[in-house]
Amino acid sequence: MFLQIKNLHKSFDTENGKLSVLKDINMTIKEGEFICAVGASGSGKSTLLRQIAGLDKPCFGEIKIDGKLITAPGPDRGMVFQHYTLYPWLNVQENTEFGLKLQGVPKKERKEKASYYLSVVGLSNFAKSLPKQLSGGMKQRVAIARALTSEPKVLLMDEPFGALDIHTKESMHEFILDLWQRTNLTIFMITHDVEEAVFLSNRIYALGSRPGTVRKEITINLPERTSHIKRHSIFHDYRDELMELLRLHGKEALMAA
Prior knowledge:
- This protein is α/β, with parallel strands linked by helices.
- It has 2 domains: 1-76 and 154-224 and 233-250, P-loop containing nucleotide triphosphate hydrolases (Rossmann fold, 3-Layer(aba) Sandwich), CATH 3.40.50; 86-151, no CATH class.
- Helix content is 37%, strand content 26%.
- The chain contains 7 helices and 10 strands.
- The chain has helices spanning 45-53, 92-102, 107-120, 136-148, 166-183, 194-200, 233-256, and strands at residues 3-14, 17-29, 34-38, 60-65, 68-69, 77-80, 154-158, 186-191, 203-208, 213-219.
- Belongs to the ABC transporter superfamily. Nitrate/nitrite/cyanate uptake transporter (NitT) (TC 3.A.1.16) family.
- InterPro entries: AAA+_ATPase (IPR003593), ABC_transporter-like_ATP-bd (IPR003439), ABC_transporter-like_CS (IPR017871), ABC_transporter_ATP-bind (IPR050166), P-loop_NTPase (IPR027417).
- Keywords: ATP-binding, Nucleotide-binding, Transport.
- One of its GO terms (molecular function) is ATP hydrolysis activity.
């Protein structure tokens, strides 16, 4: 057991009282897995990711990584957001080094690490470019390279491809799968895109809404991970199962509102 979420509850105080966002979340993620949590708006996906990142604390329950309780952000967890969060006045190399600079890593070491991970994501030739000179997919690759420089145990991704057009998104899917397979990186990603989750992940946690709860855990066994698999009946079966599950619980949430 590598990353463990146990009996996690999260609520917020509002003018109308407490708003329960996450309820009794239990998940286990093994080293080297690619896990997606899928849910509609109101399922608490981003809130869950913030708990794992240590950016917020649960009301009840606990999250552990390698048996160590998570209480704050740390270099063992890299974070990639939907929007690239690159500094427009820094070039690609400087953006990639930025986190290491904040950690006080010596200049020579952070330059070497940033250069290495830019090569991993295929952007060595763009090290001197500014973000405005890059496409959306390239910007997201820089954000991923920056997250990898701390050599995290797990990469946390908050709908990282949601702002991309369909062709760039498909290209990024192939890129992240290749990166995962080459590095054996542990990835936990949240998304509302059911097809994206089926295509990328080993396992999927389907979240219900208001409050977010784990409705079902689904293991994904695809014969291949190429674009051709999306036309295969097994892919359609997984997609349809998830769509129906989310649709069903979306109706329940509306009726309970």
